[in-house]
């Protein structure tokens, strides 16, 4: 589904990604973990070209991403941000239907129908006519997930989706993500929620200093990490 | 000290200046707005030469006195163009060009104040740049832009009084002429001041109405 080959990213003199290669299969759920500043966000943002890789290649569904086809590829890659970024001047429903109508050219009726289905799925149908500033953080993030899903993407990218939330709201968002994983969505999740990663992910990618230090199943990674760096990291966070 | 009886017959003459002042301010505001939007687009765009031009334009018009710009257009441009410009068109052009510099800064700042994440979220959904600007960024930026824009037009209305230096018969100039004719400057100048003050109050009130309406849509 996604193939990353020798991905490098440099900001000025700061080499943030030092040659990352990996392959993600359809329906796979990947948790990307690692210390702060290790390049997790940058890795994710290179996949949908919010950052331009300095070198290396990324392909999605067999298509190599270039300047030219990036808009088309992005329709296929949903992204959820730490700080939601819902459109504050649009209602929940309008947030969901905007891109499907304007980007995909779907009719308004159809867009509303599938948006309402999605809102039902994330448990926020009642809030469809509210403005985002009337929602709690957890509700905002669930709307943001639904908004990304409304484009009917084949892969979902999450960048620390629960890090900006109060603890009591983390659960409801993780529950929605778990459902999504069980429904067969391909997902790449940058997260600090180790329990969630252990339970839901098929594979853990451990990043450190811009390198992919470990690529393992959650069982291997959490019980017997191979590298010293992963051991140290786990000691700190667990 | 006050003796309005000598200037009373001239009050209608001074009041007629309101039309001239408004004519200058309204047309200058339109030029300022249209040109300001274009310049702002250049500034936020990625095409370097246009960016340089817009920044250079702004720094020139903000970095030199408005009076100088007016005098250049009225007295010096004919030297280049080979024909004379009437005071009112010259004033409209001068204020319009000057205002554009300030308007473009207001718009640029208003757009930049919108969280960068909003752009990223739109990009991530595959929304093309022009639609993102029109549907996502500008509706949010307008809330930052409108109050400052209103201030700019209030300032423009007051500052328009300096067209008196190129002889346009606005409120200010008329008050000055009446003063010269009656040998009493205090009263006509006070009348002119009163007119400007009322105009400012009206504009301020309009601005507050617009802001209130915007806030209601939140
Ligand atoms: N736009 C940018 N310009 C310059 N440097 C950047 C930029 N974005 C990220 N960096 C740098 O790249 C490095 C990796 O950043 P990144 O955000 O990918 O880390 P991360 O693993 O996501 O960290 P965190 O867990 O704190 O989110 C950091 O040192 C950061 O300072
Ligand atoms: Mg990050």
- Give the oligomer, counting copies of the same chain as homo and different chains as hetero: heterodimer
Reported by name, the CATH topology of chain B is: MetI-like fold
Strand content of chain B: under 5%
The CATH architecture of chain B? Orthogonal Bundle
Helix and strand pattern of chain B = HHHHHHHH
Poorly predicted residue ranges of chain A: none
Instruction: Indicate the CATH class of chain A.
Output: Alpha Beta
Instruction: Give a count of the beta strands of chain B, DSSP E runs of length 2 or more.
Output: 0
Helix content of chain A: 25-40%
Question: Which CATH-level-2 architecture of chain A?
Answer: 3-Layer(aba) Sandwich
GO molecular function, one term (chain A): ATP binding
Pfam family, one (chain A): ABC_tran
Domain ABC transporter (chain A): 2-234
Protein name (chain A): L-arginine ABC transporter ATP-binding protein
What does this protein look like?
The complex is a heterodimer of chains A (238) and B (218). By secondary structure, chain A is α/β, with parallel strands linked by helices. Chain A has one domain: Rossmann fold (3-Layer(aba) Sandwich). Chain A contains nine helices and ten strands. A six-stranded mixed β-sheet of chain A has the order 6-7-8-3-9-10, with helices on both faces. In chain A, strands 2-1-4-5 form a four-stranded antiparallel β-sheet, with helices on one face. In chain A, α3 crosses α4, α3 packs parallel to α5 and α4 crosses α5. The two termini of chain A are 32 Å apart. Chain B is mostly helical and 218 residues long. Chain B has a single domain, classed as MetI-like fold, CATH 1.10.3720.10. Chain B is flat. At the A-B interface, α2, β6, α3 and α5 of A face α5 and α6 of B. The site of magnesium ion has 4 residues of chain A, from α1. Chain A: InterPro entries: AAA+_ATPase, ABC_ATPase_HisP-typ, ABC_transporter-like_ATP-bd, ABC_transporter-like_CS, MetN_ABC_transporter-like, P-loop_NTPase. Chain A: Pfam families: ABC_tran (PF00005).
